[in-house]
Design a protein that fits this description.
- By secondary structure, this protein is an alpha/beta fold.
- The chain is built from 25 helices and 15 strands.
- The strands form four sheets. The protein has a five-stranded parallel sheet with strand order 1-6-3-5-4, with helices on both faces.
- Helix 2 crosses helix 3 (77-84), helix 17 (430-446) packs across helix 18 and helix 20 (520-539) packs antiparallel against helix 21 (554-567).
- The protein is elongated.
- The termini are far apart.
C-alpha cells in the first residue's frame, strides 16, 4: 500500500484546517493535543497528512507490518522516527540517511529485516532515498509506503496555529519551499505572531535559495533568437505549466524533461534561465562535473552530492533543475575496462537518484540537461522517462544572429539594420555576440562617446592583414564548398563569410537537406562537399593547410563520414558493426585495414571533387569575386548567382550581374 503526501503549494487565502480536522479519529486528535512547539507539531502533522485516514488505520492494525517512510531530507529522520512511534510500536527500525558508507546500502540488513518480518514482527524503514539506503528486502516487501514531501501550506498553517494560537490570514505560495526541518522550525516560534513566523520563513528562503539574480538580467523568452526546436519545446512547457496551475492539465501530461545539445557558446544556459523566468519556477543549477570535483571522489560522497542537489530542487518544487555538462557521466557502453568497476555503480546510483527524486509520483520538477557532446551520453540517461528528448541547437543563421545582436545592444544603435553586420559575423554564437558588444561599448567609452556602428563592425571584422592572394584563396575555397553543397543538394546555404574575427579563414553556414535515411551516395556527396575547398585550392595553385587541423575541419569531417559508413552504418564493403560514430578516431588509429579503405575512398572522392570544381569554376570564381569585395554573402545571394549561371551561362556570371 502506497500513501503519497499531498504536494500542495498553492496560495491559501484565509484560515486552513488542521490536519486532524480531516480524520474522524479521536486517537489522531489525542496525538496532536498539547503539542505546541514547531519541532513537535511539524513531524506529526506531516506524517498524518501523508498517511491519511486509510494509512493511519493500516498502521494501527495489529500483526506484522513492513513500513517504509520516504522523508524530504535527512534532517527529518529522527523526528519522523519519534512521531511514527506515537502511533505504532516496531520491533526494529532502519533509519538510514547515507551517513555510514559501509552500512547504509541496500545489501546490508536484509537478513535481519526478512527474519523479523517472517516472524510476524513490525519493521520500520526511514530514509530520504529508500531504494539507495534501506535494505532491499524491506523496500521490496513494504506493506505501507509513506512518502512525505516538502511541507504543504496546509501543514505550515497548522504548525503556525499550534505555536501562536492563531491562524495566518493569508499565506504566500509555497511558504516553506526550499527549507529543511531546522530552518522551518526555527522560523515558527512560540509566543510569536503568524505574520512574524511567515516573515521569518521568507527571510530564510531568501538566505537558502536566494533571489535568483541569474534571472534578473535574462531576456524574456519571447525575445530570444536562434533556438529553433528548443524554443518550441520551451514555449510549450510554459504554456502547459500555466494550464497546470489553472487546473486544466495534469502534471503527468507535461513534457518536462529534455537535453539541450549544441556546440559551446550557443546559449543553452541562457535558454534555461529564460525558461525558469517565463515559467515562474525557482532555478536550481548544477554542473554534473562538479559532483566529482566538489566531493572527495569516493562513490558514496559523489552520490550524496548529487542526491543533495536533487533534493534541494525537490524542496523548492515546482522548480527547474538544470544539469549542465551531463556528459561528465560516461557512457557505460563505450568505457574501457580499467574504470568500469568505479564508474558503473556511480552511473547506476545517479540514475536511481534521478528516478526517485525527479520522476516519482510526488515529483514536481522540470529537469533539463545540457551537453556539448550528445553522442557521448549513456543511453539509459536519455531514454524516455528520464532526460528525453535530446534537442539540438544549431548555430544561428544570419537573421537569428541579427536578432541576438539587437537583443544584446539594447538601446545602442537604435533603428539600424543589423543584417549586414550579422553577415560579417556568420558562424558566430551568442557567446561571440556578447564579447563583440562588450568590446564595442568599451571602445566607445574609451573614445568618450556613444557607440557607433563602426565600433561594432570593427569587432566582427578587424583589420584584415592577409595579402590579397590569401584573401582570394580563402574566397575560392569557401565558394567551392557553397556551390558544391547547393548543386549536389547536400545542404541549403544560409551564409558564406571570409571576414576575419571568428577564424583566420572563412565559414559556410548551411542547413542539411532533410533526409530521414542516408544512403552511401548521400554520405559520399557530403564528403565531396567537404573536399571541394581543397580541390579548388589545388586547381588554382596548390593545396594548403586550410582544409585540416582538427576534427571539425574539412578533412576531419570527410574522414569521419566515410569511416562511419564502413565501421558503423553498414554502408561499406562489410556489414560488421565495429563501433559507434563517437569511436571513429579510435577505430582509425587501431585498424590499419580501415584506414586503407577510408583513404582509398577519400582519394577517389577528391578526384571527383576536383572534376566538379573544374566544371563549375566560372560560378565558383564569380562567388569568390563577390566575397573578396563584400567579405560575406547571404544564401539568397548565392542562389541568385546560381540562377544567373544557369540562365545565362558562364558569360553572364563573369559579367558581374547584381545577385542581391
Amino acid at each position: 500500500m502506497a500513501v503519497d503526501a499531498p504536494h500542495d503549494v498553492a496560495d491559501i487565502d484565509g484560515p486552513a484546517d488542521h490536519p486532524a480536522d480531516h480524520a474522524d479519529d479521536a486517537y489522531v486528535r489525542a496525538a496532536l493535543a498539547g503539542l505546541r512547539s514547531a519541532r513537535d507539531v511539524l513531524p506529526v502533522a506531516a506524517l498524518l497528512e501523508a498517511l491519511g485516514p486509510a494509512g493511519l488505520r493500516r498502521l494501527r492494525e495489529p500483526g506484522g507490518l513492513a513500513v517504509v517512510v520516504q522523508i524530504p531530507s535527512p534532517d527529518w529522520a529522527p523526528h519522523i522516527d519519534l512521531a511514527i512511534r506515537e502511533f505504532s510500536a516496531f520491533a526494529y527500525a532502519f533509519v538510514r540517511i547515507g551517513s555510514q558508507r559501509n552500512l547504509d546500502r541496500p545489501s546490508e540488513g536484509n537478513d535481519k529485516a526478512a527474519s523479523l518480518l517472517a516472524e510476524g514482527a513490525r519493521v520500520l524503514g526511514i530514509s530520504q532515498a529508500p531504494e539507495r539506503y534501506l535494505p532491499a528486502s524491506l523496500v521490496a516487501g513494504a506493506d505501507l509506503l509513506v512518502r512525505i514531501g516538502p511541507p504543504s501550506n496546509r501543514i505550515i498553517n497548522a504548525v503556525i496555529r499550534a505555536a501562536t494560537g492563531k491562524r495566518p490570514r493569508r499565506m504566500p505560495p509555497a511558504a516553506a519551499a526550499g527549507l529543511d526541518f531546522d530552518a522551518i522550525t526555527a522560523s515558527i516560534r512560540l509566543a510569536s505572531t503568524p505574520r512574524a513566523c511567515l516573515d521569518r520563513l521568507q527571510v530564510a528562503q531568501r538566505a537558502v535559495c536566494g533571489d535568483d539574480v541569474r534571472l534578473a538580467d535574462v531576456p524574456p523568452l519571447e525575445e530570444l533568437c536562434g533556438y529553433g526546436d528548443a524554443m518550441s519545446w520551451a514555449q510549450n512547457l510554459v504554456r502547459d505549466l500555466d494550464a497546470w496551475r489553472e487546473g486544466r492539465l495534469a502534471w503527468e501530461a507535461l513534457s518536462r524533461t529534455c537535453v539541450l545539445a549544441s556546440a559551446p557558446g550557443l546559449g543553452k544556459s541562457t535558454l534555461v534561465r529564460a525558461i525558469a523566468r517565463a515559467a515562474r519556477l525557482p532555478l536550481v543549477a548544477t554542473s554534473v562535473g562538479d559532483w566529482f570535483t566538489g566531493s572527495s571522489g569516493h562513490i558514496d560522497t559523489v552520490l550524496r552530492f548529487a542526491e543533495q542537489t536533487m533534493m534541494r530542487a525537490a524542496a523548492q518544487a515546482p522548480a527547474l533543475l538544470f544539469l549542465d555538462e551531463i556528459d561528465a557521466l560516461p557512457n557505460r557502453a563505450t568505457m574501457d575496462n580499467r574504470g568500469r568497476d568505479w564508474w558503473t555503480p556511480v552511473v547506476n546510483g545517479i540514475l536511481t537518484a534521478l528516478d526517485s527524486t525527479t520522476s516519482g509520483p510526488t515529483s514536481r520538477l522540470v529537469v533539463i540537461g545540457a551537453t556539448n557532446h550528445p553522442e557521448a551520453l549513456d543511453a539509459a540517461l536519455v531514454r524516455p522517462g528520464r532526460l528525453h528528448p535530446i534537442i539540438r541547437i544549431a548555430p544561428p543563421d544570419v537573421p537569428a544572429l541579427a536578432g541576438i545582436l539587437r537583443q544584446h545592444l539594447g538601446a545602442d544603435l537604435p533603428g539600424i539594420d543589423l543584417t549586414p553586420v550579422a553577415r560579417l559575423g556568420a558562424g558566430g554564437t551568442g557567446a561571440d555576440v556578447t564579447a563583440w558588444v562588450k568590446a564595442a561599448r568599451a571602445a566607445a567609452r574609451a573614445a568618450g562617446r556613444r557607440m557607433i556602428l563602426a565600433d561594432l563592425v570593427l569587432q566582427l571584422a578587424p583589420p584584415d592583414d592577409r595579402t590579397q592572394e590569401e584573401i582570394l584563396i580563402c574566397a575560392r575555397h569557401e565558394a567551392a564548398h557553397a556551390i558544391a553543397a547547393e548543386l549536389l543538394d547536400v545542404a541549403r546555404v544560409s551564409c558564406v563569410s571570409i571576414a576575419l574575427g571568428l577564424t583566420n579563414a572563412g565559414v559556410v553556414r548551411a542547413a542539411a537537406a532533410p533526409k530521414l535515411l542516408m544512403t552511401r551516395a548521400d554520405t559520399e556527396a557530403y564528403a565531396l562537399v567537404c573536399l571541394a575547398g581543397r580541390a579548388m585550392d589545388a586547381l588554382c595553385g596548390a593545396p594548403n593547410s586550410g582544409a585540416g587541423g582538427d576534427p571539425r575541419s574539412d578533412l576531419g569531417r570527410a574522414t569521419a563520414a566515410i569511416a562511419a559508413a564502413h565501421a558503423s552504418l553498414g554502408l561499406g564493403e562489410t556489414l560488421s558493426y565495429r563501433g559507434g560514430i563517437d569511436e571513429i578516431s579510435r577505430l582509425l588509429r587501431e585498424d590499419p585495414a580501415l584506414r586503407r579503405t577510408v583513404e582509398r575512398d577519400l582519394q577517389r572522392l577528391f578526384v571527383q571533387a576536383s572534376a566538379f570544381v573544374s566544371q563549375h569554376r566560372p560560378l565558383v570564381e564569380a562567388v569568390a569575386k563577390r566575397l573578396v569585395s563584400e567579405r560575406s554573402l547571404s544564401g539568397d545571394a548565392i542562389a541568385a548567382l546560381i540562377r544567373v549561371h544557369r540562365q545565362g551561362g558562364a558569360h553572364a556570371v563573369r559579367g558581374g550581374s547584381d545577385a542581391r
